[in-house]
Every structure is written in structure tokens, then in C-alpha cells.
Amino acid sequence: MEIRHSTEKDLDRMTEIYRCARQFMAEHGNPNQWGPTNWPPRERLENDIRSGHSYVCLNDSGRVIGTFYFIQGKDIEPTYRDITDGGWLDDSAYGVVHRLAGDSSERGIGAFCINWAFEQCGHIRIDTHGDNVVMQNLLKKLGFTHCGTVHVEEDDYPRLAFEKSRGGEISVDSRRAK
């Protein structure tokens, strides 16, 4: 597998992957994270691509099988400023992974994308819906620590906040994709 920046040509495939992800989440006890709002909207994906923070995961045949948003820097995620029921482990600059989805065609898509993001900066914060047990288990398997609860603008459901850091300074250049 490999990661590259998304392009406008990937939009239809990305939209299909998110449709598959919403269905998968609903079938696995998580119908409310993206389902009711048909999240993420195409306009958001277009903005992500224009900003240079949208990525796709390709299998060994070059087919797009996953997608996610990744950005890094100091205090880059406003919703992470207010964390309850705990606190962040590391106050240094960090990377954020949002809207991670795979098409379920291969095992390990999510882990590959998260590990790639971690390799870029060595400090990742990520959140997930309380009903998204699949993602919670993946994050724990990858060595993330549950740090508390954050709230997002998209809906009224609180999110479980996770963090993984190897400490020290990180680069703020998030454009190192292949």
C-alpha cells in the first residue's frame, strides 16, 4: 500500500468509500457517527483536496481503497483545545487524522493510514465516536492512549480523544506524501 495526496479525479471514488464506511459503521453498532448527516459532504472533500490535506491509500495494484484527512502543526484542531474527563499527554505540535475510511477490500487499511501519519510527525491526536468500537480497538492496538472527551461541530455526540507521541519536536510540513 502507499499514500498520496487526493486529487479532484479521486472525488467519486472517495465518495463511494465514505458510503461503504457509513454502511460498515451502521452494521457494526455505529449508525450515528456519519450516517444521519451523510458525512462528509462532497464540498468538505473538495475543500480538503484544495487545502492539500486530503490523502488516499492505494493498494499494490494502484486502486484507491482508503481516504483520510491529515494536518499537522501547533494547536491546529480547535475542538481539541477543550478536553474533558482527562487531558492530553504531550503539548507539542501534533498531527490530526480525520475522516479515515476504507472500502473493506483489504485488511489493514486503517492501520496503514494511521501509521503513515504517525511516521510523518511522531505525534498524533485522533477522536472517534463512542459507538465506534472498531476504531477504538484499532487505536488501542496501535498504541494510542485514551485521553478524554472532545466535542465536534458536526453533531452533538461526544468523541473519545486518543493520542500517541514519541515526544520531541515534529516537522510542520505535511506535504511529504509520495
What is this structure, in a nutshell?
By secondary structure, the protein is an alpha+beta fold. The chain has helices spanning 11-27, 42-51, 109-121, 133-141, and strands at 2-5, 54-58, 64-73, 94-102, 123-129, 145-151, 158-165. 28% of the residues lie in helices and 28% in strands.
Features:
178 residues; alpha+beta; seven-stranded mixed beta sheet; 4 helices; disordered C terminus
Please render the helix and strand layout as text.
Layout: E1 2-5, H1 11-27, H2 42-51, E2 54-58, E3 64-73, E4 94-102, H3 109-121, E5 123-129, H4 133-141, E6 145-151, E7 158-165
Parallel strand pairs: 4-5
Antiparallel strand pairs: 1-2, 2-3, 3-4, 5-7, 6-7
Word description of this protein:
The chain is of the alpha+beta class and 178 residues long. It has helices at 11-27, 42-51, 109-121, 133-141, and strands at 2-5, 54-58, 64-73, 94-102, 123-129, 145-151, 158-165. The protein has a seven-stranded mixed β-sheet. The chain starts with a strand and ends in a 13-residue tail after the last strand. The relative contact order is 0.20.
Q: How big is the Rg?
A: 15 Å
Q: Characterize the quaternary organization of these chains.
A: single chain
Question: Describe the biggest sheet?
Answer: 7 strands, mixed
β-strand percent reads: 25-35%
Total helix count?
Answer: 4
Helix content: 25-40%
DSSP E strands, number: 7
Which regions contain 5 or more consecutive residues with pLDDT less than 50?
Answer: 168-178
Shape: globular
